[in-house]
Prior knowledge:
With 262 residues, the chain is of the alpha+beta class. 17% of the residues lie in helices and 39% in strands. Strands 7-8-9-10-11-1-2-3-4-5-6-12 form a 12-stranded mixed β-sheet. Helix 2 runs antiparallel to helix 3. The chain starts with a strand and ends in an 8-residue tail after the last strand.
Amino acid sequence: KSVRVHHVSLQGYLEGNPSNKTRLSQLKEAVNACVSRYQNAGRTVRLQGQWPDYLVGSREDIYYGENRRIRYTTVIAYVLNPADCSLMENISRTADLVSGGGTCNVDLASKTAKGYCPTDGHASSPANTNRRGPAFGDDEGLKQLARDPRMAAAVASIQKTIASSNATSGQKRSVLGLECEVWDQPAAPGGGSACYTKKGSFVPSRVTGQGAEVGMLLDFDSKYGFKMKAVSAKLDNNVSPAVFAPYNMPGFTVSARMATEK
């Protein structure tokens, strides 16, 4: 039986501080210096042809169900290959499954998964569509930390940041023809914003219990962090239930669920 989802594909890059442009220029200088040294020493080099636009690029595919969400992330980072002065790709492929039942973190490259990873891919987790999550200040872990006078100020700062990140800016934009609501993201590196659409037959809500924004992410912009923009968005699309449980594939090792991870 298929599962009804909203599916968005986003592409972007890490701006960073120093900026992507500055760090890319620094890498080019390091490559040129490496080539010069190796050629003078008579060593073999592999000259770089086309250069990437971004030092760290990312692609995300997010599938929103009515009671769960899974995000597939691929990150490609370019570094100097000391063997021949070429560029080397460091690629990570991960997925995180989240619902009211807990979180499962999946490393697609090493075929490992940890956390709350039931075989049904959180299909039986309680639905909380269109419901605002519990206030962050109700978190028991924070309450315990706040009892320590040395941590009280830090906890208050965390609560203030999270509370402000839950506030909409009141602005609206259009991405891929879909109207979305802009939310401030002060906790993002350097601050930022995210735009969520509430279009479709259901409105997915953030299910971590740490945020009130609802909808499908179409745009995320952080001053020093990642800048992601939707390149494809499909509402009310039917997919296989296997999308929510990649760790059920042969060869995966799933760790025992820890109570603290639920």
